[in-house]
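Issue 218. Parser rejects a valid record. Input:
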Amino acid sequence: MPVAYLERMNPLLINDVSATRTVRAAVVQSAPVLFDTPRTLDKLADLTADAARKKAELVVFPEAFVGGYPKGHDFGVSLGVRTPEGRDEFRRYFECAIEVPGPATEMIGSVAKNHGIHLVVGVIERKGGTLYCSALTFGPDGSLLGTHRKLMPTALERVIWGTGDGATLPVVDTPLGKVGAVICWENYMPLLRTAMYAKGVELYCAITVDDRETWVPTVRHIALEGRCFVLSACQVLQRTDLPPGYPTGRFPVDQEWLIRGGSCIVGPLGQLLAGPVYGDEAVLVADLDRADLVRAKFDFDVVGHYARPDVFRLTVNESAVKSVTFTTAPEQVGVSHGSASNSLTLLEMAGHFAVCKLPPGSAVPAWATAGDVFNLSRTTDELSVVCRQELVPEGIHCERGWQCLRVAGAMPFTLVGVLASLTAPIARAGIGVFAFSTFDTDYLLVKAERFPEAVAALRAAEHTVELLST
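Output the parser choked on:
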């Protein structure tokens, strides 16, 4: 049967060439410059350039690389007691954290764009008065593709870091494969791992500061369990890296390496492809044969043919959790049983989108389905494609510069009036909107220059809008 006919019948029947390609990945084992974020960002740029010279397409940095991991510091905390000195040390640490998005993420994005690579970077994120240990994923165009906040800080980390929620568990679909990040001891949470496997993670980035002997067996187990590549980047830290006055009383006096590393790259059958390396700064590189992902799942797919959903099931709450929600008395507009309530929650999606028009008989091009979010509509008049704008080749008839909002949660088909309750306030503000729907939910696209006005209109209509920058 001719390939062209197969494409017209069902483009998904055509083999995905990227499924068999080789990806060169790098993990960075290095020390940040503690309490000096600008110098750390300069170091990140230099290390990324080093990895790019080695032809890496994906570069992974350790947990808390930007912002730092102040190992051994107690910030003056004991049970029931805090000290003025500890509060001032926290202030110093707080000032080294970064806003997401913000100037630091713009700089990291520019590094990714300059080298045309994907970056995963562990950062200390600042929002309001709270710090989060986060992992940021950047695309080769410099865009921030995803943010994951550590769900559960460990031990004293809970004094200085807040907890993430299910709204920041992204697995990003990229031309290299599906990329996800899990931070340090989150990797010991079996339900979190299962959620990542269910999202199809292929390039599992396990960023950490855990340098114990037990860490490498952990990430080898994850690779074998999830049948995925695991890229584990760990910090190193020498006593000579510490700034003056840093407390060292909890370390043995003869201990030079306070964090000794152990970074490695593991294949989907648990085999070591690079590392581990201890007691040195390094950029480890390995070539990942994506065909190994399928070979590995031949006899074990933990969320597929080896699962027993009739016995065990996992439910993941991906809603953003807010401690305070402001409401006003809603207008009574005749909402009846089975209708959308006056208040829905919308989540901003990272990046910008394009709406494209192709001739009606066109085969679905590979770029149209390469991203993590896309929508295809075929009629006798056209093939319409919505996808991330950086994937659209030059010369395609399209409108770029759309920002996207997703309605949080899953809505039953019996719920009516959802789109009307969202598009009406935007229309009253004189703003154009492009919408598409999936089985579970709805997506709204608004041109970037009108996006703030659309957000204001939705909030004025009593909807909650969660922005990446707030």
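Fixed in the parser; the record now loads. The CA atoms of residues 327 and 462 lie 7 Å apart.
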